Amino acid sequence: MEWRPDRTAKKAVYKQIADYIEQGISTGLYSSESALPSERLLAKELGVNRSTVVAAYEELKSLGIVERKKGSGTRISTDIWGISHKRIPNWGRYMEDGSFLPNLPLVQRIRTENQKRNIINLSSGELSPGLLPREQFKTIMAENPFLDHLGYDHPQGNAALRETIAHHVKEYKKIHTLPASILITSGAQQALHLIIQCLLKPGDSIAIEDPSYCYSLPIFQSAGINTFLLPVDQHGINPDDVIALHRKHRIRMLFLNPDFQNPTGLKMSPARRKRILEISSELGIPIIEDDPYSLTSFNSEVSDTLKSMDGNGNVLYISSLSKIVASGLRIGWVIGPENVIERLADAKQQVDFGHSIFPQWAANEFLKSPSFDKHIHMIRSELKIRRDEIVVSLDQYVKKEVDYFIPEGGIHIWCRLKHAVNEQQLLEESMKRGLSFVPGSVFGSQKRYVRFTFGREETDVIGEGIARFAEALSVCVKT
Ligand SMILES: Cc1ncc(COP(=O)(O)O)c(C=O)c1O
Fold it and tell me: Is the CB of 289 under 6 A from ligand 1?
């Protein structure tokens, strides 16, 4: 036998062997009349442990491809290859071969852990239940029980909501636009996905911030996009870094989150905003401005968005209601040149036939109502209370072990650990104690960072969360 499993491959050796045997069955290498090679023989031929062959045969058995009986070895399943021609698909192989990549393992791990009751969740980037405008939405639902249209809506989004968003961005973000230049999406996330799918192609290079929320999204990798990192300091990225990067890699797009950036909580300075727009125009590189957080500004001062400063149509602007109203509404939007918006809307129609009418309608009623402005004021002061609470707790429990930057808005605080620790171990030790947070590597940071979200939990448990973190950290620093 010439074939040998590849020990350097990502796929487990037993899975490679299972795939090899399955392929051998379909090509006739193994016939249904005779038994498959014994575990011992196959292990010898492939140079692996017998237990690895056992695992491979068990995998094939679970898929219904082989039958295993004590004493008579392993045979090709007669049910499948014989009389009935029934064949169970190898779902494992399909799942591995799909072009859309799964989430990062750490993200999957945190998601599973967050399902547990009593976990203190300092990881999910959303508002706590107490901050959601439940009463206002109950009133909206009760007062407007009938929708006049329940068919497919315009793929670009409901016309009334687009009109309201045009007013909203003018009032709160100084962006002047028309409903025809707006696309309603399923959160900012879908906006990012549509842009990647429609405006970029495999092999393109883009630049993202380092660290960056975008790094946590395999959607770039799934689309075959090369991502290059622009380091962030306390004023955001250094715009001139883009020039050097572009010379080397022909950057086709810049993804920036200038306000209360996820994960650092930093704001890009006005001077750098101006400069990045100049560079974008000089080099002809479009900017994707991702802005879910600017309205959370604790002192109510909202910086000029890149879109509001953009005289040349270089910026595609993304925002969402997830961090200021409710993430479960799944209402986001993109603002850009009409032809680009039409292209994205055409894709959205193919993906989901346009956004569901119910959240669009509810969002429109809320955004139009006087409650919205009051709600934003409440969110700002409540988030500031939570921010203050986490800062006090960090000082109380881990002052000697952690440095951090105090954010003036948003929902995240980015902490640097003064001592090297194994971040996987730190996460597991924290989870054992009923706490979740996000390790820095999820955002591309190679250094010792963690992100805590202070917006997701009620104020009274934030301190307990940091106390649990301090305990977990002390275990990891010792080992
Ligand atoms: C910077 C940034 N962009 C986009 C998103 C996606 O948000 P959503 O799809 O809920 O609007 C998030 C969520 O955490 C984010 O932090």
Answer: no
CA–centroid distance, 81 to ligand 1, in Å, is 48
User: Which tens digits make up the pLDDT trace of 226-239?
Assistant: 999 999 999 999 99
Separation of CA 55 and ligand 1 centre (Å) = 41
> What's the chain's average pLDDT?
93
* Cα atoms found within 13 Å of the Cα of residue 157, Cβ hemisphere only: 31
**What is the Å distance from ligand 1's center to 263 Cα?**
11
CATH class, range 134-369: alpha beta
Residues 273-298: tens digit of each pLDDT? 999 999 999 999 999 999 999 999 99
Break the chain into its structural domains and give their ranges: 13-96, 105-125+374-478, 134-369
How far does the centroid of ligand 1 lie from the alpha carbon of residue 148, in Å? 31
- The CATH class of the 13-96 domain is mainly alpha
Q: Which two tokens stand for residue 171?
A: 């009032």
| For ligand 1, mutation pick of 232, 255, 320 (most atoms within 8 Å of CB) | 320
- Please check whether residue 283 is in contact with residue 243, taking contact to mean a CB–CB distance below 8 angstroms: yes
